[in-house]
Amino acid sequence: MNCRFVQSRLSAYVDCELTGHEQQAIRVHLEHCLECSQEYETLRKTKSLMRQLPLVQPTTSPEWLLARLHQQNGVMRRSARWSWNQVRWWQFAGGLALISAFIAWDLRSDPDRSEIQLTETPTAPAFVSQPIPNFEPAPSPALPQVSSSLYRSSLFPTSSSPYIPTNSYWIDESNSHIVSPLQPTRGFYTTFGLRPR
Amino acid sequence: MTHTALAQAVNERSHEEFDALVNRYYHQAYNTAYRLTGNHADAEDLLQEAFLRAYRFFDRYDRSMPFINWFNRILTNLYIDEYRRRGRLRTLSLDESYETEDGEEAPAFDLPDLSPSPMELALQKELEDAIQEGLSLLSPEFRVAVVLADIEGHSYEEIAEMMNTSVGTVRSRIHRGRKQLRNLIMKHHPNLFERGDLK
Ligand SMILES: [Zn+2]
Question: How distant, in Å, are the alpha carbons of A66, A162, A175, A193 from that of A172?
Answer without folding.
Answer: 21, 17, 7, 11
